[in-house]
């Protein structure tokens, strides 16, 4: 489960907001802390930096400034003034973060296929060669596989988590065609619906940016078949998606393209003007959009039909969109949406309704990358954490230092089978000492790296198994070699 863009301060902001609610508040049940703060979760961090070989001419060596380096991250040398985007520069460490950030393509790919790659890549390495993903491995082992998001299903994180391959995330129609056509995925859920706008209303003219007209029209009339002959059941209506969360699931593969184009809720009308704080939930969320929990329930109910087990990637995709927009209130909304889904998954694995048990299921709750969000005095106090509400609006105090990503470590929580192994993986220490020999603020944590985590997950799926890669994944790769296309036409 990936909350896109959610760094330590995103989680802290959500905790503080929830702690400020009264018991019995409309967000009741989640008051006080996050699910990952509860029992059973390990707690570490992971580094997120992209592959960057461009700055050492003639070699394939990683740019030494782009790896995660605690000394550069926590460099508290003051830097006066504002940058071109109008943000206070603050400290040398903030400048370093602004210069070395990854995107969701390479970070989600690293978690999915265990390889570092460049920004914008989807499950290909630095040379553009396809890498085998966890989704493909799980499918080769006969497991059910799915991908769920609150944003476009063919954008970077669900594309990588869903086992697609592309040299550029912007080739979204090709990515969509591979996700539906390759035969790897049993469930696809997200936005990108060509027929709806971001207020859940039908458009006059379809927009095929995220799925091409051939695939979309065939899905709509029920004629679409994957390369292996599998057919898709398409749900768009929220009530039908909720109904799919229980009872006997469809025999077909399950596509849920919710009635929204870019995000299930983040882009709805009524946002506060830039620079003003929007109070979370002050603009009603859309009745037409299923929650991430409702999508996850329908996905898990479908995947649970397979007795060989499952792999699923669930993304709270709009946390990142809210952070790009510097919309702190909607960021908190979207992280709460994600946290609710984590609670659902925890309950589901522990329930008698699922084939999964904590003895055979590993749950990973993390982010792909962070942004540059600190406390209100973050321009003068390096790496100041967001602070509890001080002006009575119920919203914690904060300041933005970018409208883009950063290279900071992100939280990594795991629960279930062999979860403690991920603590052993986290064998690097994020420590910078001050003149008195004490760890500077924010530092001191242990961390692993996303590619290491990705390789670990691939290994976990292969424990005690005989791998027959010569299945869909091989056919996808062979088809690419022959036709130059990632999908079957
Ligand atoms: Zn982003």
UniProtKB/TrEMBL annotation:
<dbReference type="InterPro" id="IPR017850">
    <property type="entry name" value="Alkaline_phosphatase_core_sf"/>
</dbReference>
<dbReference type="InterPro" id="IPR001952">
    <property type="entry name" value="Alkaline_phosphatase"/>
</dbReference>
<protein>
    <submittedName>
        <fullName>Alkaline phosphatase</fullName>
    </submittedName>
</protein>
<comment type="similarity">
    <text>Belongs to the alkaline phosphatase family.</text>
</comment>
<keyword id="KW-0597">Phosphoprotein</keyword>
<dbReference type="Pfam" id="PF00245">
    <property type="entry name" value="Alk_phosphatase"/>
</dbReference>
């Amino acid at each position: 489960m990936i909350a896109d863009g959610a760094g330590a301060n995103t989680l802290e902001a959500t905790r503080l907001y929830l702690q400020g609610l009264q018991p019995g508040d409309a967000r009741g049940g989640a008051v006080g802390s996050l699910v990952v703060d509860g029992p059973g979760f390990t707690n570490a961090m992971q580094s997120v930096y992209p592959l960057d070989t461009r700055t050492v001419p003639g070699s394939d060596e990683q740019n030494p400034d782009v790896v995660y380096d605690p000394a550069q991250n926590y460099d508290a040398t003051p830097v006066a003034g504002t940058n071109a985007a109008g943000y206070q520069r603050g400290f040398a460490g903030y400048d370093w973060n602004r210069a070395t950030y990854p995107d969701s393509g390479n970070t989600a790919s690293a978690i999915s296929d265990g390889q570092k790659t460049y920004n914008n890549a989807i499950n290909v390495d630095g040379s553009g060669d396809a890498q085998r993903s966890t989704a493909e491995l799980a499918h080769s082992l006969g497991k059910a596989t799915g991908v769920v998001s609150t944003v476009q299903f063919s954008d970077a994180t669900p594309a990588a988590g869903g086992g697609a391959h592309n040299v550029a995330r912007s080739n979204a129609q090709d990515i969509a065609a591979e996700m539906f056509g390759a035969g790897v995925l049993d469930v696809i859920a997200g936005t990108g619906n060509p027929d709806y706008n971001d207020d859940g209303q039908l458009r006059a003219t379809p927009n095929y940016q995220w799925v091409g007209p051939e695939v979309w029209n065939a899905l709509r009339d029920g004629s679409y078949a994957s390369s292996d002959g599998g057919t898709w059941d398409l749900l768009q209506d929220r009530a039908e998606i909720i109904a799919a969360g229980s009872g006997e699931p469809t025999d077909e593969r399950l596509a849920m393209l919710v009635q929204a184009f870019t995000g299930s809720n983040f882009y709805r009308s009524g946002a506060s003007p830039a620079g003003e704080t929007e109070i979370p939930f002050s603009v009603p969320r859309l009745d037409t959009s299923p929650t991430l929990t409702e999508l996850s329930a329908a996905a898990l109910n479908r995947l649970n039909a397979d007795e060989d087990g499952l792999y699923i990637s669930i993304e709270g995709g709009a946390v990142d969109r809210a952070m790009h927009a510097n919309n702190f209130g909607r960021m908190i909304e979207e992280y709460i949406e994600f946290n609710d889904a984590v609670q659902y998954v925890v309950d589901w694995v522990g329930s008698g309704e699922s084939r999964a048990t904590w003895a055979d299921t590993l749950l990973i709750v993390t982010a792909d990358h962070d942004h540059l969000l600190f406390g209100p005095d973050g321009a003068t106090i390096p790496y100041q954490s967001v602070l509890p509400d001080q002006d009575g609006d119920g919203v914690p105090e904060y300041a933005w230092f970018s409208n883009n990503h950063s290279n900071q470590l992100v939280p990594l929580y795991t629960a279930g089978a062999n979860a403690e192994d991920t603590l052993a993986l986290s064998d690097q220490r994020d420590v910078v000492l001050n003149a008195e020999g004490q760890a500077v603020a924010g530092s001191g944590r242990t961390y692993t790296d996303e590619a290491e985590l990705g390789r670990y997950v691939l290994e976990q799926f292969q424990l005690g198994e005989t791998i027959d890669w010569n299945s869909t994944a091989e056919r996808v790769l062979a088809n690419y070699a022959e036709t130059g296309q990632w999908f079957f036409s």
